[in-house]
Design brief:
There is one protein chain. This protein has about 100 residues and is an alpha+beta fold. It has a single domain, classed as Ribosome hibernation promotion factor-like (Double Stranded RNA Binding Domain, 2-Layer Sandwich). It contains 2 helices and 4 strands; from the N terminus they run βαβββα. β1 (about 1-5), α1 and β2 (about 35-45) form a beta-alpha-beta unit.
Length: about 100
């Protein structure tokens, strides 16, 4: 399974976020990695460096083999909580999608 993390120029601590993302998304997948071809994660600061509530956004797109991608979004005050929230949403969405197939 391919794992790709994208970030915009305003996100700092990218290496830490990438390591965390691999860990938290891996836990969310709960052994379903073999049913996926790719996971892509986008992390962005929607206010471009200005402070504001829930201005960090994480989008995760999982590509299950043989079916359409599953995409989830989450916003939070910081990158790590945004990744954690999106991973939780992904776990529920994949459970629903993969249970059907």
């Amino acid at each position: 399974m391919q794992f790709i993390l994208h970030n915009d120029d305003t996100i700092h601590g990218f290496d830490e976020a990438q390591k965390f993302a691999r860990e938290v998304v891996g836990k969310a997948l709960k052994g379903r990695e073999d049913r996926l071809s790719r996971i892509e994660i986008w992390v962005a600061d929607e206010n471009a460096g200005k402070s504001g509530p829930d201005d960090k956004k994480c989008t995760i797109e999982a590509h299950p083999r043989g079916t359409k991608p599953v995409t989830v979004h989450a916003n939070a005050d910081a990158v790590i909580p945004a990744i954690r929230a999106a991973a939780s949403k992904l776990a529920h969405a994949l459970e629903h999608r993969l249970h059907k197939s």
